[in-house]
Amino acid sequence: MADRQATVERNTLETQIKITINLDGTGQAQFETGVPFLDHMMDQIARHGLIDIDIKAKGDLHIDAHHTVEDIGITLGQAFSQAVGDKKGIQRYGHAYVPLDEALSRVVIDFSGRPGLEFNVPFTRATIGQFDVDLFHEFFQGFVNHALVTLHVDNLRGQNSHHQAETIFKAFGRALRMALTPDPRMLGMMPSTKGCL
């Protein structure tokens, strides 16, 4: 498969963002976003997806984190779209269930070329530390719209909002890893079954 790396820059009145990814990495991550809890979640994507991710972002955090989080989702989606390319040879579909103590989440993704998000997460608190949990939806919506994927995110149970969020992002990373794995059937690596009973 071709080299699956990309670097994307996005500059607006509210944010200046640069993201570099390597879909065939080892989970190395570097973040400078000014939003510590988002950095923690991005690290889950990198480690569980085995994707190298470098994010540098400056945003209007003196107002709030909305633009920064949303625009990181947009830029990350653009980077994925570039790195995946024509999608030939990948599994395309990925899914994962991840527990953390009382919390359990399921994420299912399809590199369909059609943006669609179903986000069903009944957070038990409005904030995790200083982080507004509503911004997770904005992040995933931005990602979906620009990566051109169908994404279903469901928190099946959980009482601790930190646990809920962490299971979502770990499952997201693992679903990405599955979907982006080379499909041997598409690469001509599977033995022929012609003539088999």
Structure description:
This protein is an alpha+beta fold. 34% of the residues lie in helices and 30% in strands. The protein has four helices and ten strands. The protein has a four-stranded mixed β-sheet with strand order 1-2-4-3, with helices on one face. A hairpin with a 3-residue loop joins strand 1 (5-11) and strand 2. Helix 1 (36-49) packs parallel to helix 4. The longest helix has 20 residues, at 161-180.
Q: What is the arithmetic mean of pLDDT?
A: 94
Radius of gyration: 17 Å
Beta-sheet strand percentage?
25-35%
- Overall body shape: globular
- Structural class by helix and strand composition: alpha+beta
Number of helices: 4
Q: Tell me how many strands there are.
A: 10
Tell me about the biggest sheet? 4 strands, mixed
Distance between the termini: 32 Å
Strand arrangement, major sheet: 1-2-4-3
Q: Provide the helix percentage.
A: 25-40%
Unreliable residue runs: 190-197
Topology of helices and strands:
Layout: E1 5-11, E2 15-22, E3 29-32, H1 36-49, E4 52-59, H2 66-84, E5 93-100, E6 103-110, E7 116-120, E8 127-128, E9 131-132, H3 134-147, E10 150-157, H4 161-180
Parallel strand pairs: 3-4, 7-10
Antiparallel strand pairs: 1-2, 2-4, 5-6, 6-10, 8-9
